[in-house]
Amino acid sequence: MSRLKTFSIGGIHPSGRKELTEEKKLERMPVPEILHIPVNQHIGAPCVPLVKVGDRILKNQIIAKTENGLPSSVHSPISGEVIEIKEMIFPGKRKIHVIIVKNDKQYEKYEGTEIENELTNDFNELLKIVENAGIIGMGGAGFPTHVKLNPPKDKPVDLFIINAAECEPYLNADYRAMIEFPEKLMNGIKFILDTTPMKKVIIGIESNKPLAIKTLKEINNDSRIDIVPVKTRYPQGAEKQLIYALSKRTVPIRKLPFEVGVIVQNVGTVLAIYDAAKMNKPLIERILTVSGKGIKEPKNIIAAIGTPIKDIIEYCGGLNDNTEYAVNGGPMMGKAFDNFELPITKTTSGLLFLTDEECEESEESACIRCSKCLLVCPMGLNPTTLMDVSKKRIYELMDDVLDCIECGSCTYVCPSNRDLADNIIKGKERYNKYLKRSKKNG
Amino acid sequence: MAENKFIVRAAPFLKQREDVKTIMWTVLIALLPATLWALYLYRFRALSVILFTLLFTQLFEIIFLRIRGNKNIIESAFDGSALVTALLLALNLPSGSPWWMCAIGGFVAMLFGKHVYGGLGNNPFNPALVARVFLLLSFPTIMNTWTVGLNPDIITGATPLGLMKTEGLQAIQNLDLWRLFIGLPVESIGGGSIGEISELAILAGGLLLIARGIIKPLIPIIYILTVFIFTGIMYFVNPAAYANPIFHMVTGGLFLGAFFMATDFVTTPLTMKGKFIFALGCGIITSLIRLFGSYPEGVSFSILIMNALTPTIDKFTKTKKFGG
Ligand code: SF4
Ligand code: SF4
Questions:
Q1: Same domain, residue pair A330 and A353
Q2: Strand partners, A72
Q3: Residue A300: in which H helix or E strand, if any?
Q4: How distant is the Cα of B177 from the closest Cα of chain A, in angstroms?
Q5: Hey, which of B13, B189, B235, B305 would disulfide with A359, CB 3.0 to 4.6 Å?
Q6: What is the DSSP string of A311-354?
Q7: Are residues A143 and A265 in the same domain?
Q8: ipTM over the 0.85 cut-off
């Protein structure tokens, strides 16, 4: 076998722990009585609620929207009554307004939605559809997809990469989607190729998902589409790393992929685009993995956006007593939370409930300068030094924090158990504020 | 559902299981071949040097941790780092080192090598080498008395490098370099520090460190190669005045220093570029001392000098950013 493609520097090999839900078929979770739909799910200014308490709303209706900066919108997955709009505190101390909707179980659709359409072949119309459907990158960052699909005119894009690496341990959402909806995924990809200026597609899948690779290869009859296995190595699914692995193009530091003629979308996003174009269905649900030894019945589910996590826990049989962590996302980059009233959002790729045996707490000690963090950093940074200058707020030496992709590889390897990634990420926030301040002061 | 029992902290939630302790114990295991060889050559004399050095060093580690108010004494004291320092120091001592000298060595290593700077991770100099050089300057006679290995009687003799320095090139011309590499005793030749005699044993341990991913081969290779090239050039230019470069490989503390001391994490640069410069510097200084200095051997000094330069090297060697 030829050597698998992969990124150039750094990287780690955490145990995959995919087996808990690898074989679990997607289940559509019934929508609960009450949904908590956050108005801000993408990066950018929060959407403004378009409904008020007491309103009756319909399924697929836009209930919040913003035109500022990065436009996006939020739709209701159900018909029912708005019973409250309140602030909830999300991981990272982010306060976000949540529209609380009582499900009337009618699922009465907003006019014109969820009916089969003629697929468009007009690029601008595609962008409009994607924007109106509230589609954002479902891999994690939540960047509005219509913005990403439409790079500046002077940056021609020829290569479309589908990020199906799913390199985070435990997660199988993309994997299940690929083996359960392969036709839909391929149709979605073809549709995007037909309507946008891009000419070629590479689907990058980590080599630990042979069934997904085989399934897609078997049905692929389009010479524009390549299905390429990539090495199982974290963070293979990080955008710049995957681009390098698949095309040997290096995205310059602090630049976006379109600079090298590439757009990357993940599997879930493509499916959402296809749903929007074909069925006029906005982004109101998503596929996610519920896993970890803390949850009694690990599952892969399709759940409505806004479903409170407590309902998902109940649907998955409840928690074991030795559960210590609840994590939104994967174990490398996810966020821990302890409020189970919080809902899943468009970017929740998984919910993990981890026990003490799966992740130990360990005491932090002084850096022994082993260089391991430098060696594993996929961005070629110097994490130990960056952590120190971040903590001490030595802004003159902090510039590199902006290049951190927050992958957590440094913390993963550190024998002294230093919280490198966390400190660098905090340093990044601080440094950005510092830059803003100095700009203001001239 | 009791919600407040869940731990909220930053990602990642998975960790590699290799901690400081595992690393230190791997280093100790890697030092085992050299240690066993020392015991084989010098029997009870080596045993006494090793045991006393381990004992006193570990004792002073605990004492200084206490004085510094460490809250987690048991954890910190037995992370294995003091034992690594102690074993390295012991292997760098002559077989005739008395117990009190081992004690002083342990004291100096822990106090002036480590704890005055705030403990493991903050020390600029390799603690074992600080202690060794201190002993060398304080007790030059003991520290320069070498005995022939595998001999129940104490028969002293100069080391090959010492012989070359005092008697000139002809004195060492007929030495069997292969024997020196393996570390077999040579009649009337003092072996050297107990742990540096068999390059083969050191190499075996060094390869273990590399295989286990504890060290990268960069530093040992560049260090040894630099000495090889430097002494090789001199030999090439004037073989009548300078020894064969292979002779320089298989004698003295070069291998022990290159694999186990120039690779000490704490006191060497962080970046690969920095490590390269560090190793190059060590090689050049070692060669200069051996060829032109008044001491026969320069490994300890060169590593300490480069230790001193490490912060500067770190400052000027940047990592190469992806896409930068
Ligand atoms: S979290 Fe940042 S600094 Fe740490 S390895 Fe990843 S990119 Fe490098
Ligand atoms: S991995 Fe940890 S101990 Fe090693 S250099 Fe980085 S911060 Fe220091």
A1: yes
A2: A66
A3: strand A299-304
A4: 35
A5: B13
A6: HHHHHTT-B-TTEEEEEES-TTT-EE---TTPBP-TT--EEEEE
A7: yes
A8: yes
- Together in a domain, A143 and A108: no
Which amino acid is located at A191 in the chain? F
For residue B10, which residues of chain A lie inside 8 Å, CB to CB?
336, 419, 421-422, 425
Q: At residue A140, does pLDDT exceed 80?
A: no
Strand order in the sheet with A335-336: A26-28, A299-304, A285-291, A350-355, A323-328, A335-336
Residues across chain B: 324
Distance of CA A389 from the midpoint of ligand 1 (Å):
15
The 10s digit of each residue's pLDDT in B36-74 is 999 999 999 999 999 999 999 999 999 999 999 988 888
Does the CA dihedral B93-B291-B261-B60 come out positive or negative?
Answer: positive
Report chain B's C-alpha Rg in angstroms: 21
CATH number of the domain where residue A128 is located: 3.40.50.11540
Please give the pLDDT value at position B2.
47
Q: Examine residue A84 and state whether it is found in any structural domain, yes or no.
A: yes
Instruction: Give start and end residues of each alpha helix (H) in A166-308.
Output: 173-180, 182-195, 210-219, 239-247, 267-279
- Could you tell me which residues are beta bridge partners of residue A100? A36, A84
Is A13 part of any domain?
Answer: no
Look-up: residue for tokens 């790393």?
A241
Q: Which residue has the tokens 């064969």?
A: B244
Cβ of B18 under 8 Å from any chain A Cβ? yes
CB pair distance less than 8 Å for B319 and A371: no
Q: Give pLDDT tens digits for A309-353.
A: 999 999 999 999 999 999 999 999 999 999 999 999 999 999 999
Instruction: Tell whether B321 lies on the interface with A, counting CB pairs under 8 A.
Output: yes
> Is the same domain home to A343 and A413?
no
| Res B1 pLDDT > 80 | no
- B6 and A323 Cβ atoms separated by less than 8 Å: yes
Q: Are B102 and B130 in contact (CB under 8 A)?
A: no
Query: Over A36-50, what HEC string results?
Result: EEECCCCCCCCCEEC
List, as ranges, residues 290-349 from A with C-beta within 8 Å of B.
310, 313, 319, 323-327, 329, 331-340
DSSP H helical segments within chain B, as ranges? 20-30, 32-67, 73-77, 81-91, 99-111, 127-138, 140-143, 160-167, 177-182, 199-211, 218-237, 245-250, 254-256, 272-292, 299-316
Contact B3 A334 (CB under 8 A): no
Residue B161 burial class via C-beta count within 10 angstroms: exposed 0-12, middle 13-18, buried 19 and up: buried
Which ligand has its closest atom nearest to the C-alpha of A382? 1
CA distance B147 to B197: 12
User: Dihedral angle at the C-alpha atoms of B31, B34, B35, B38, nearest 10 degrees?
Assistant: -160
Exposure string (b/e) for B173-191, b if CB count within 10 Å is 16 or more?
eebeeeebbebbbbeebbb
CB atoms closer than 10 angstroms to residue B118: 11
How many Å lie between the centroid of ligand 1 and the Cα of residue A409? 6
- Residue A83 CB neighbours (<10 A): 13
Q: Return d(Cα B61, Cα B59) in angstroms, integer.
A: 5
The number of folded domains in chain A is 4
Q: Do you find a cis peptide bond into B311, omega within 30 degrees of 0?
A: no
Q: What's the mean pLDDT when you consider all of chain B?
A: 94
